[in-house]
Model the fold of this input.
Amino acid sequence: MAVLTMGLTSVFAQKAPASFTGTITSKTSCTGTTDPNIIAQINGEMTQMVCGNRMKMVQVQEGGLGIIQIVNGDSKMAYVVLDIPGMGKYYIETSGDSIAEGFKNIKTDYNYTGEKKTIAGYECEKVIATMVNLETDEETSTTLYVSKDINSGSDINFASHPGLVGYPLSTEQHRDINGEDVVILTEAVTVTPSKKIKPVEFLLPTDAKDIHSNPELMKMLGMGGDDDDDE
Done:
């Protein structure tokens, strides 16, 4: 019996899909506007690290401001780390419960169309996400192409597309910007598997402080801070 159990365990272990670990480089572009300011703000490139249900993205903006986004689908926690020149690193923590609360008035339906497309060497399925604001009845839709080879579950998407199965390698949505219908497309151009990426890389930087420790910074970011009513 022990030998049989060990054999079955080995078979199931071999059949279990391996978690993807690697980097995904995507480009964002827009159509529907000729405004150079809008184009400059939207068009760009980003690189994400993925390890199972964890995702991390690092960006550097004008003025040297660094922004690190970390999503942990296992613990259902999301972080934004601000690396501010001259001030250091501060993190904003958001729990899965808080994110779910923010989505409570949004009804989202995912239509898995069965339509296939290969992106950066990975087969993806077209998914139409329809979101309805239950308070205003406003409806928006997003077209996604998801790969189950990158992630076959939904945990990694809890902060952006709750319940979506598969990892989105392409996202297309319409936005009204200054009265123009601007179509924004973000699509992967390279997917590079790498065993060098470890879960430890998705931890908060040890020198980052909770943003609540700096009320003035919170006020600058419109997050409150000090009781600004001088009564």
